Amino acid sequence: MALFENLLYTVDAASGILTIMLNRPAKLNALNAATIEDIRQAMQEALDDADVRGIILTGSGDKAFVAGADIAELAGLNEITGRRAAELGQEAFCLIEESSKPVIAAVNGFALGGGCELAMACHLRVAAENARFGQPEVNLGLIPGYGGTQRLTQLIGKGKALELMLTGDQIKADEALRLGLVNHVVPAAELLPFCQQLLGRILTKAPLAVGLVIDCVNAAFDQERHGYQTEANAFSRCCGSEDFREGTRAFLEKRAATFTGK
User: At what angle do helices 227-239 and 207-219 cross, to 10 degrees?
Assistant: First the structure.
């Protein structure tokens, strides 16, 4: 297992749940280039590790999930380096979004700018009651660059997404829940246990089917893919799997299924 400078990588052997904790508390876990590269490498390692079945992504401390980008580093960008920075961020976050292993963001405070974008790249989002969300890049003369203009629009709709990105306003956790930006809001002390329980429920299901659901839903927002055809292909693949035979047999035999991901 690789060692990471800016995050903690912890696998629970019993459950197969990996916790990736952004660990720059003095900077409120702000994203710099090194941290984004750590996220990319950690996700790739998780995808390659058969012992990792699901992932929780969170931040250290109780103030911030990720408070945004590292402004000192951001200030030095020009048109050429800015494009590359956006592309690298998008690449890392797409690795999360396209992961066949479910990823839950445990949002434990501020999720602003790149932090909001990181949370949105995850498949599900659970917010502590003190969480705050926003895309305040216009205050810096910027726009979201790690996929935020696309994912925020997909999650909450064009009108409200435009309002949040054009004003740079922050919203509280209960408003994020009302808009559909997060799936659940829980007390801060219950955040990680709730996410572990939620992910644990998902991990009782057939791994192949879970990964294909994620892929089909992503296809709905990809102009280069035909969502219905992707679904039909995935359904066909499931029908040829050992998990399908086990699942249907277990149902008919009135017992719990034992899935192997094959």
Answer: 170
Helix (H, G, I), strand (E, B) or coil at 2: coil
Please identify which residue in the block is written with the tokens 């629009």.
Answer: 153
- From residue 31, how far is each of 188, 198, 203, 217, 224 by CA, in Å? 22, 27, 29, 27, 30
Q: Which of 73, 79, 129, 137 is catalytic?
A: 137
**pLDDT of the residue at 71:** 86
> Of the listed 5, 37, 79, 117, which one is catalytic?
117
Instruction: Please tell me the distance from the alpha carbon of residue 119 to that of residue 106, in angstroms, as a whole number.
Output: 8
- Concerning whether 117 is annotated as a catalytic residue, the answer is yes
Residue 97 designated active-site:
no
What does the alpha-carbon distance between residue 64 and residue 225 come to, in Å, rounded to a whole number? 36
Cα–Cα distance for residue pair 36/92, rounded to 1 Å: 7
Low-confidence ranges of the chain (pLDDT < 50): none
Positive or negative torsion for Cα 222, 227, 230, 234: positive
- Could you read off the pLDDT of 229-262 as tens digits, one per residue? 898 988 898 899 999 899 999 999 999 999 998 8
